[in-house]
Amino acid sequence: MLKEELQRLSTEKRNQKTMQLDTLSINEILKIMNEEDQHVLSTVKDAIPDIEKAIELVVRQLNEGGRLIYIGAGTSGRIGIMDAVECIPTFSTTDEVIALMAGGTQAFVKAVEGAEDSLELAKEDLKSVQLTKNDVVMGIAASGRTPYVIGGLNYAKSIQVSTIALSCNKNAEISDLAEVSIEVDAGPEILSGSTRLKSGTAQKIILNMISTVSMIRIGKVYGNLMVDMKPSNDKLKEAGDIKVAIVMILTSCTKIEAENKLNKNQGFVRNSLED
């Protein structure tokens, strides 16, 4: 029964181009990998309408003081953690974007046996970060059927928290559990079942889209400049508060006046310049 179910998943099927993968030259393997990766971009493009809906939901909840909380297991969990962590230096996030992974942070480098198969573990993890109705939970699962993610989405729904599902198979189980569902099907991996390849690439691209565009929409970008970066090196520390500096220079005002303009305009630089 399980075998038949897995065989229906695109992520678990054998790629006909690589049935003799171990006999190919390095150059042949690289060319096939590159060709297969092209499919990722087209499938992500097809999913843009659903990605847009997800971003609108995330922005709405962030403006309510909520958080974007990624939940996942294995590669999906690691990609969620990567995206959340990268938001800290890029956008000076504190807890606006966080990630929970089956087995905890130690599972980032070493799998924790049985963690992803637990329907209850994500519920406990979400409780531990004090999930509220202002948050949005995004379940990430290449297969679309990971129990850890299913349990987390079900718990979020049970307390009326907004949900998003991202999977790499069509008609995924987790899609039925979410307010917004994103499904990308890039086809079978060149190495059967290794979803760290095309599926992982698709997930990373989509999380980049969701977090970056969401941060743009809540005022952390001016033009195409990062203006809310965390000063983590000498160059940035010397600049101090980038938003305040921009408003001071472009409106010829004092630091206090610039801070007041930004506070009045919820931190949006462009609106502060027009105030």
From TrEMBL:
Pfam families associated with the record: GKRP_SIS_N
Origin superkingdom: Bacteria
PROSITE patterns, A to Z: GCKR (PS01272), SIS (PS51464)
Signal peptide annotation: none
Annotated keywords: Carbohydrate metabolism, Lyase
Gene3D superfamilies: Glucose-6-phosphate isomerase like protein, domain 1 (3.40.50.10490)
Pathway(s) where this gene product acts: Amino-sugar metabolism; N-acetylmuramate degradation
Active site per database record: E86, E116
Catalytic activity: N-acetyl-D-muramate 6-phosphate + H2O = N-acetyl-D-glucosamine 6-phosphate + (R)-lactate
SIS domain location: 58-220
Listed transmembrane segments: none
Function text: Specifically catalyzes the cleavage of the D-lactyl ether substituent of MurNAc 6-phosphate, producing GlcNAc 6-phosphate and D-lactate.
Entries under NCBIfam families matching the protein: N-acetylmuramic acid 6-phosphate etherase, PRK05441.1, PRK12570.1
Subunit structure comment from the entry: Homodimer.
Additional record remark: A lyase-type mechanism (elimination/hydration) is suggested for the cleavage of the lactyl ether bond of MurNAc 6-phosphate, with the formation of an alpha,beta-unsaturated aldehyde intermediate with (E)-stereochemistry, followed by the syn addition of water to give product.
Family: Belongs to the GCKR-like family. MurNAc-6-P etherase subfamily.
Protein name per Swiss-Prot or TrEMBL: N-acetylmuramic acid 6-phosphate etherase
Biological source species: Breznakia pachnodae
Lineage of the species this protein comes from: Bacteria, Bacillati, Bacillota, Erysipelotrichia, Erysipelotrichales
